[in-house]
Amino acid sequence: MRPSTSAGPRRTIVWSLRILFVVVVFGGWILANATGSISPIILPQLGAVLSESIELLRESEVWAAAGITVFEMIAGFGIAAVAGLLVGFVLSRKPLRSAIFEKLLAWGYIFPISLVYPLFLIWAGVGLPSKILFAAASAFFPIAYNTMKGLSAVPVRYLKVGQAFGASAQATDWHIRAGASRPMILSGLRLGVSMATVSVVLAEMLGANAGLGFMAQQASSQFQIPKAYAVVLILVVITSLLLWLMETLLRDPNEKLKK
Amino acid sequence: MLPNRTVRETKETKMISHLNVENLEIRYNVNAAEPAITGVNLEIKQGEFVTVIGPSGCGKSTLLHAMGGMLSPSSGGIYLDGIEMARPDPRQAAFVFQDYSLFPWKKVVDNVAMGLRFAGEDKKVALEKARAELGFVGLADKADKYPGELSGGMQQRVAVARALALKPKFLLMDEPFGALDEQTRRSLGQELTQILHDAGQSVVLITHSLEEAIFWADRIVVMKAGPGEISKEIVVDEPWPRSLEFMTTARFDDLRAELFHRIQPTTASEAK
Ligand SMILES: Nc1ncnc2c1ncn2[C@@H]1O[C@H](COP(=O)(O)OP(=O)(O)OP(=O)(O)O)[C@@H](O)[C@H]1O
Ligand SMILES: [Mg+2]
Q: How many A from CA of B191 to the centre of ligand 2?
């Protein structure tokens, strides 16, 4: 879900406060470092984290790890998107089918799939495939659910227009059902993106042999605290960029009008 | 600026089409005690402007939908030049619905082109025709907007353009301005109806407004409820073009008084 601050007279105020927030957080960090009130094992020097980050970015190791993480996220999301759209579409075709599977999908949506992550490790090993499958499984449910709901709740008046203008069955699916349900499907996909990213990072920390999550976990277990922070920082930046990119791609072109 | 629409011309050069409603009965529910409409007979000639008026729930929309092939008759039938209208064919009879029925996810021009695309028209040609039609209703500059960016009145004009793009023989309009405020309703109604009249477009227009029903009509179809039936057809033989002066004549007053009494019984209950 995106904050809806895209326009309005408060824009400058909102941004000033956001910047202020960041300044307060980092200011507090520096202050805590200076006074020594928080142990460096918990909160390392900000300077050390930043220089560690720059150091890390010079090494190919971190780029390889980042590549793996991003690949897992994209592959997991891709599989979930294809499967979710397909399943949602097929289930929406018949009221009986959607009635049967609605609860199941809704339940999969809220069930913390991370509880069964160990099973993914058993099925697919400790390498990439378990991460990808896990991310795909998490992202699948919101996508399938929203697709099914969106497609089966097309307002009758749009279908009536299609009928009056002689739309064929395919034209009705493509021009009317798909269009009317697009906002809901896109929001399912956006949810899927965040599920996939969160799941990958979580999975890499819970059991992996590669990726940024694994690196962060390794560093912290070896008490390389500034390094752990630096990896997490890189992870946050990369994930944010990925989320931002996908949100932009998956935005409804006339979404702003519906507010 | 208005393209020259040529139905008047068609009237002279080609055979005039006829839309016939014969002994029509529509039941939405087989178990219903009363049909929505029954025993309806009506003939509309191409080039005619027919208005339909009657109390709420008397079956005006039902009749219109049936005329466009959207409902299957329980008995009787709808015939276009003697051929039964089994399903909607927007090139014969195209609709403008009461509620805003544009697709919010499509640009205005794509909305207008949609009917043509459904009818199998090439995309490029359809879009060209759609733009021309938008020009016809005075909305050429809104072609690339989304419906949500337009006022209600503009949206209904787009819906009219969408129907006209198919060059239908009959244009079926179900209270197209009913959801608009009084002011917009008047000016837009006047403007659009004038355009349609000038173009010689055959129109069946459902309206709640007595003035509208009289002023634009070659013929007024008055309906009554319980069950829905045509209670009277009134020919308005005032010649065209009609000036607003017509509204001040004794003939207009008489017609208004007659309509008022005919639809009176339920007007109180529908004062919403
Ligand atoms: N889809 C439907 N299913 C069942 N009954 C319907 C349906 N549509 C209309 N009816 C019934 O048929 C009758 C005629 O309805 P209709 O909509 O044609 O009236 P109307 O004259 O257009 O009314 P209004 O002026 O309020 O639009 C009403 O009793 C209505 O309840
Ligand atoms: Mg109606």
A: 22
Does residue A189 contact residue A250 with C-beta atoms inside 8 Å? yes
- Report the percent of chain A where pLDDT is more than 90: 63
CATH number assigned to the domain covering A42-258: 1.10.3720.10
- What token pair was written down for A250? 């998956």
Q: What is the CATH T-level fold of the domain B41-92+169-264, as seen in this structure? A: Rossmann fold (3.40.50)
CA distance A101 to A148: 9
Most B CBs within 10 Å: which of A157, A160, A165, A173, as the mutation test of the B interface?
A165
pTM of the model as a whole: 0.79
Neighbours of B271 (CB within 10 A): 6
User: How many degrees, rounded to 5, is the angle at CA B10 between CA B4 and CA B13?
Assistant: 130
- How far apart are the C-alpha atoms of A17 and A8, rounded to whole Å? 15
Q: For residue B47, what is the DSSP state?
A: T
State how far the Cα of A21 lies from the Cα of A206, in Å rounded to an integer: 32
CB contact under 8 A, B70 and A162: no
Cα–Cα dist A39/A34, whole Å: 11
Ligand 1 first shell, C-beta below 6 A: B 28, 36, 54, 56-62, 228
CA B5–ligand 2 middle distance (angstroms): 29
Q: What number is the average pLDDT over the span B17-44?
A: 91
Model confidence over A211-229: pLDDT tens digits? 999 999 999 999 899 999 9
Q: How far is B101 from chain A (nearest CA, A)?
A: 7
Which pLDDT band holds residue A8 (cuts at 50, 70, 90)?
low
Q: DSSP of B137-166, one letter per residue?
A: TT-GGGTTS-GGGS-HHHHHHHHHHHHHTT
B 144-173 residues with CB < 8 A to A: 146, 148-149, 162, 166
Q: How high is the pLDDT of residue B7? A: 43
Please, which residues have CB less than 5 A from ligand 2, an ion?
B 61
